[in-house]
Amino acid sequence: YSVSLLPSNATSIQWTVPAAALSFTGQGTTSISVSYPATAVSGNVTATAVSNCGSSTTRVTMVSLPACEVAPPPPPFAKAGTGIITPAAGMQVMVFPNPTVADFKVQVLTAGAAKITVRILDVQGRALKSYTVLPNQTSGIGSDLKTGAYMMEVRQGNEVKVTRVLKF
User: Fold this and answer.
1) 129 domain-assigned
2) Tens-place pLDDT, residues 36-68
3) What Å distances lie between residue 77 and 34, 72, 88, 113, CA to CA?
4) What share of the chain is helix, strand, coil (3-state, %, to 5)?
5) What gap in Å lies between CA 113 and CA 134, rounded to an integer?
């Protein structure tokens, strides 16, 4: 969001964003960048010029964003050497949003009831975090990770899936 110019005699712009916003940068300047969650967001972004003499009238822009859709399951694949397309068996792992600025939502679709372990690894393969999640439910993980690239290893019994994830 931005205003074209700082009004004359103004020293800064005071911005407000919807309460659901995850973060924003640029407070006091003519332009801000806002990060929103994958859930629905509604509210207002406001800009008020501030000077030593007071404040201007507030400019308001309404924000109404729908929730992001869950990523679809992976497409079917051809069984080696058969040319026959069969749906993927075993567990399916969905990670969204990826990349993210907050936490990753992880959903593991599986017929098994065994415990599921999710490990976060750095790019050298060192384990940084470990979580236990429930089958067929969405869990939020990684909110405490720093900006960077990671590998997310999801394990249930002997089945393992690895997904590369990015945090900004």
Assistant:
1) yes
2) 888 888 999 999 999 988 999 999 999 998 887
3) 39, 15, 7, 25
4) 0, 50, 50
5) 8
Domain count, the chain: 2
Instruction: Report whether 43 contacts 17 (CB < 8 A).
Output: yes
Q: Based on the domain organization, do 163 and 94 belong to the same domain? A: yes
Question: Tell me, what DSSP letter sits at residue 99?
Answer: S
Same domain, 93 and 40: no
Report the amino acid identity of residue 144: D
Establish whether the linkage from the previous residue to 99 is cis, with ω within 30° of 0: yes
* Cβ within 8 Å of residue 21, ≥6 positions away: 34, 35, 36, 41
Task: Give dist(CA 127, CA 21) in Å, integer.
Answer: 30
